[in-house]
Specification:
Layout: E1 16-22, E2 25-31, E3 38-44, E4 47-52, E5 55-59, H1 91-95, E6 100-102, H2 113-118, E7 125-127, H3 130-138, E8 144-146, E9 150-153, E10 156-161, H4 168-171, H5 174-180, E11 185-189, E12 196-198, H6 206-215, E13 219-223, H7 241-250, E14 255-259, H8 271-281, E15 287-288, E16 295-297
Parallel strand pairs: 5-6, 6-7, 7-8, 12-13, 13-14, 14-15
Antiparallel strand pairs: 1-2, 3-4, 3-16, 4-5, 9-10, 10-11, 11-12
The chain binds zinc ion.
Zinc ion (ZN) binds near residues 107 and 260.
Length: about 300
């Protein structure tokens, strides 16, 4: 059964041996734990595939070829066309094993025309609220589910997490606030598997800090391109280098997967910039910056 986690569990036996030594007496007991493999495949921009056992979620699909759309008007480097690069694989291959789609918000760089065309209309698709559900249903999708607080899919629990696509100073300008809109993140959990926290298009916020503190996820996907709207150069609308460090400092043992760089016009932090930063900070052991198409296993 493809959708049952029980059959997806890779039986890797962790043998914990405890020796209790008394006088002339040694007792040993063994515990066997099964673990579910978790992998994160970075596709491009914010598009990632997250797999628990054999259940695969496609998050924030932007699937157009290089240069399909004009740059985002009124943003940094808007003369460049989006996406800046091609997908690392054909879309058929990309979609082959996808069981459900998650759209954190409906900005073009997370849910584009190409994705709407090629993703099968009956695939289960999670969105953040009723407004986005209506948008996506109007595009022809038939199994659209609003992630109110949490949901279960094939043995994987999805929890909606909060965030904001810019600082309060940016949201104080009504047309900008309207354009940026609401966003969500998602926390993935399953029995005997590492938790993955996908923060989404958010800046550092109390909501992010709260998830890190309360859940202590082992894997954290951050959108770290520090995108900039013209006129708000001091207040990027995504995390950047210093936020990466801040997350690392809160959870030094967590693996950070940094994405949303080098693929759309308005990013001010590239992978090379971030790599240089993490090298300087000596945190490159826990901050991973995958190439397009690269899969990381946890
Ligand atoms: Zn984005």
């Amino acid at each position: 059964m493809k959708h049952s986690l029980k059959t997806l569990i890779m039986a890797s036996a962790l043998i914990a041996t405890t020796a209790c030594t008394g006088v002339g007496d040694t007792t040993q007991h063994q515990t066997t734990t099964t673990t579910t493999e978790v992998s994160v495949q970075h596709i491009r921009n914010a598009t990632v595939k997250i797999t628990y056992g054999e259940t695969t979620f496609l998050v924030d699909p932007m699937l157009a070829g290089k240069g399909a759309y004009p740059g985002f008007e009124g943003t940094y480097n808007s003369h460049l066309r989006n996406p800046l690069v091609d997908l690392p694989m054909p879309t058929e291959q990309l979609l082959a094993n996808v069981d459900a789609v998650i759209v954190t918000h409906t900005h073009l760089d997370h849910w584009d025309d190409a994705a709407q065309q090629v993703i099968p209309k009956a695939l289960p698709l999670f969105v953040q609220n009723e407004a986005d559900a209506k948008t996506v249903r109007d595009q022809g999708f038939t199994d659209v589910r609003v992630l109110d607080q949490s949901a279960e899919f094939a043995g994987v629990t999805l929890q909606k997490t909060g965030g904001q696509h810019g600082e309060d100073s940016v949201y104080a300008v009504p047309p900008v606030a309207q354009m940026l809109g609401e966003v969500m993140g998602v926390l993935f959990s399953a029995p005997n598997a590492k938790q993955v926290y996908l923060a989404g298009d958010t800046v550092w916020r109390p909501e992010v800090e709260q998830v890190l503190k309360a859940e202590q996820p082992e894997v954290i996907i951050l959108n770290t391109g520090a995108a900039v709207i013209n006129g708000f150069e001091q207040a990027p609308i995504l995390m950047g280098t210093s936020d990466t460090l801040r997350v690392h400092q809160m959870l030094p043992n967590a693996s950070i997967v940094a994405v949303h760089m080098d693929a759309v016009n308005h990013m001010t932090v590239s992978r090379a910039d971030l790599q240089q930063f993490v090298d300087t900070q000596e945190i490159s052991a826990t901050v991973r910056i995958p190439a397009d198409g690269e899969t990381l296993s946890f």
